[in-house]
Amino acid sequence: MKQVESSKENKVHFISLGCPKNLVDTEIMVGTLMKDGYSIVGDEESADTVIINTCGFIEDSKRESIQKILEMGELKKQGKIKRLVVAGCLTQRYKSDIVDELPEADLFVGSGEFQNIDKILDENKKGSEKRTFFNLPTYLQDSSTPRVNTQPKHRAYLKISEGCLKRCAFCAIPLIRGNLQSRTIENVVNEAKLLVAGGVKEIIIISHDFTDYGWDLKRKNPESKESPYELLRALDQVEGLQWIRLLYLYPDGLDMETLKLIKNSKKIVKYFDMPLQHINNDVLKKMNRKMTKEEISEVVKNIRTLMPEAIIRTQFIVGFPGETEDQFNELVEFIKENEFDRVGCFSYSPEENTPAGKMLDQLDEETKQRRHDILMKTQQKISKKLQQRMIGKVLDVIVEGLSEETDLLLQGRNSQQAPEIDGVTLINSGTADVGQIVKVRITDSLEYDLIGEIVEISENGEIIEL
């Protein structure tokens, strides 16, 4: 067997799977190891150690994590890497089971121990035989936590809390990430300032539920000022920050005071990522969602009334245990009536140790897939119509570089497009630097992407051709 070359010593390659919250954990591990003298490399075969930060949320993500572990395990068998570390949510969720089933891995690091990755690797290199590192997921980063932003220089994710207050019947997140823990406003704002000082123009706020932010701190201290409104107000005052994007909003926390703050802010983009999951009241109750159809409809109406230009992105689950054909049809009609800008759809999959996973009235896969396809075809027609309405509008676009399709076009995102999950804006006329925010007149639309040309706006608001 070929031995790993000594020149690879202290070189680590990361594979980060799953959501942006998991990515921030990876960035903390990167920063922690670099501070300890390790080098981070972009190719696994150039590394001594490969660390896979896994996702264990739903069946598809679990399969992806296992497949990646097996691929890296094969490289280890071939002598191309020396050490394989499996970290993150899948590890935390399955603990001893995953250890027994994956002998390829040397170390298993749960979501309550990832912050100690430097100490874990150091001890392993010294000959420690301990393989498993699990703890309750109570770690909460602060503004001094070592972290390396792995996103393009002009954007970064900013995690404001850990864990979740909600207990939705279908969700395993509280089992993996624990209870809600909010960072202080001062802590979050300090990190935002550091990111901006490093060149970040767009900060994307992430958590398991933005609208519950601060609840835990207020419970401990009723005098605490931490709340979604106060956090946004503080971030809105960070000099040099141009875009603030909010992800994962539960509609029950979007009161009129917060909506008006978003409306009047020049920095908070009018983009509402608001997973609704369903709309039938009986299904919502069974899901342990805390709102009714009527209450949800009121929130959507408030957003649309205050900010007609706002984008609403949502997601739904079809095939939840006991969902009837009539309840599904009610959901489809709700989507038609509200014409959401972006809709994601998941076919329900039962998760271990969740209330929904134990329900007896599970639906068959064929029914779930059929409902998924109907819902997505319905949304495709809506999306096409809404995309075409953008033609002729002038939008602020942050330039991300050359198009992934062709070097002849620039690629960017307007304020209505979140990275990784939405489409892009292709620029076929004009030049700009990466990270620059430019005015783009939309000239055409595709199913998910927009096409446009860079223009300038005169002082009296007229378009100046370049």
- What is the CA-CA span between the terminal residues? 61 Å
Shape: globular
Q: Segments where pLDDT lies below 50 for 5+ residues?
A: 1-6
Helix content: 25-40%
DSSP summary, beta strand count: 20
Strand content: 15-25%
> Would you tell me the structural class of the helices and strands?
alpha/beta
Number of helices: 13
Largest sheet: spatial strand order: 2-1-3-4-5-6
The biggest sheet amounts to: 6 strands, parallel
The overall pLDDT, averaged over residues, is 93
Compute the CA-based radius of gyration: 23 Å
Protein described:
The protein is an alpha/beta fold and 466 residues long. Helix content is 33%, strand content 21%. The protein contains 13 helices and 20 strands. The strands form 5 sheets. The protein has a 6-stranded parallel beta sheet with strand order 2-1-3-4-5-6, with helices on both faces. The protein has a 5-stranded mixed beta barrel with strand order 15-16-17-19-18. It has a 3-stranded parallel beta sheet with strand order 7-10-11. The chain has helices at 20-35, 59-77, 89-101, 117-125, 173-177, 185-197, 215-220, 228-235, 256-264, 281-286, 293-306, 325-338, 365-388; strands at 11-16, 39-40, 49-54, 83-88, 107-109, 132-133, 155-159, 161-162, 181-182, 202-206, 243-246, 271-273, 311-318, 342-347, 394-402, 410-414, 425-429, 437-445, 450-457, 463-464.
